C-alpha cells in the first residue's frame, strides 16, 4: 500500500483516515523532549523585543530628564553667583541660591529613585527570560500569557483590571502599568477635548518626536485653533496662528492653508472640505494618533501583543481543509469562533501536510513509518510496537476501541 503526502489543505483521496491536520508540529522530535522544548523556547525569545525595550526606554527618558533639570539649575545658580557679587545684598542672593540647590538635590534624589526603579525592572525582566528552561516551561508560559493579557487590558484602557491581574500574579515588574498610566492622563484629557497635557507630553519628548518626523504636535495646534474658531473668537485665533502655526508653514503649508480658511467658513459651514474639521471624530483621530506616537516612543508594537500572537497562531493553523465538513475536531479552526477570527488572515504557507501520530504526536516518516489498522486508522510504528509489547501482540485502536493482532497491520509508504 502506498500513501502519498497530501498537499496542504486537501483531504485524503482514500478511505484511510490520516492524521494530517495542518496544525500539527512539523518537527520529527517529540514535543516532550528537552531539545524540542529548547528550540521552541529559543524561537519564542525572538518575540520579547518589546518586553525588554519598554523599561529601557523609560530608563533613558528618566536619565535625560534628570540631566536637563541639572543643566538648567546649575546654569541658573552660576549666573546667580555672578549677579550676587554685584548686588547690594549678596547674602540674601546667596541664601536664595542655596535654597535653589537644595531643591535641585531633592529633585535629583527623586529622579535617582525613578532611575533605580527602571534599572530594577530591566534586571527583573532579564532574570525572567534567563529563568526559562524546558523543565519550567509550562509555568514560564503561564506568566507570559498573563503579561500578554495585562498588555491588552492596558491598551484597551482597562487599567484597574490590569493592575489587579498584575498584583494577584505578582508580575508588577514584568508589565508596563506605570508607562500606560502616563498615557492615560493624555488620553483622558483628549477625550475631554483638552490639549494641554498632550502638548506638555510633546514638549517632554520634543527631540524624539522631531527625530521621527512626528506631526502630532502640529495636529494638536490645529485642533486648538479650530476650537477658537468654533467659539467665534477670531482675534485670538489669528494671534494663536501667528504664534504657534506659522513656524510649521515651511513643511505643512497645504494643511495650514486649509485650516486657516475656517476663519471665513466658520463652524456652521456646509462645505464638506471644512465641515469635516469641526466634527467630533477629529478628537478620536488625535487619540489614535497619540497612541501610535506613544508606542513608537517606547518601542512597543502598534497592535496589542494578544492580537499579534492570535493572528500568528491562527494563520499558522489555517488551511482550506480547516473549512471542510470532515475537518477533525482536534483542529481549533473546526470551531466557528476561531474561523471568524481567522477569516481575514492568510493561509499557512506549507507545501505539504505532515503525518503525525495520533498517539505519540511524533512525526511519521521513513524512520518511523505509518501503519494502517484493519479499520483504516493510521498510527506510527513506534506507538504500535510499544502497544503490542504491553498487550501481548494485541492492538487496541484508541479512537474506536477495535482490536486486532499486530500481524494484521499494513505498512504505508510515504512517497
Which features would summarize this protein structure in a list?
single chain; 415 residues; mainly alpha; three-stranded antiparallel sheet; 17 helices; 4% strand; disordered N terminus
Structural notes for this entry:
It is a single chain. The chain is mainly α. Among the domains are: 35-132; 213-294, no CATH class. Helices cover 58% and strands 4% of the residues. The protein contains 17 helices and 7 strands. The strands form 3 sheets. The chain has a 3-stranded antiparallel sheet. Strands 1-7 form a two-stranded parallel ribbon. The longest helix is centred in the first third of the chain and has 41 residues, at 90-130. The protein is elongated, with a radius of gyration of 32 Å. The N and C termini lie close together (11 Å). 20% of the residues are buried.
Structural class, from secondary structure content?
mainly alpha
Strand content: under 5%
- The total strand number stands at 7
Taken from the alpha-carbon principal axes, the silhouette is: elongated
- Counting H and I runs of at least 4 residues, what is the number of helices? 17
What is the element string, with H for helices and E for strands?
Answer: EHHHHHHHHHHHHHHHHEEHEEEE
Overall average pLDDT:
83
> Helix fraction?
55-70%
Radius of gyration: 32 Å
Cα distance, first to last residue? 11 Å
Pick out the low-confidence regions. 1-33
In spatial order, strands of the major sheet run 3-2-6
Oligomeric state of this protein: single chain
Main beta sheet strand tally, sense and closure: 3 strands, antiparallel
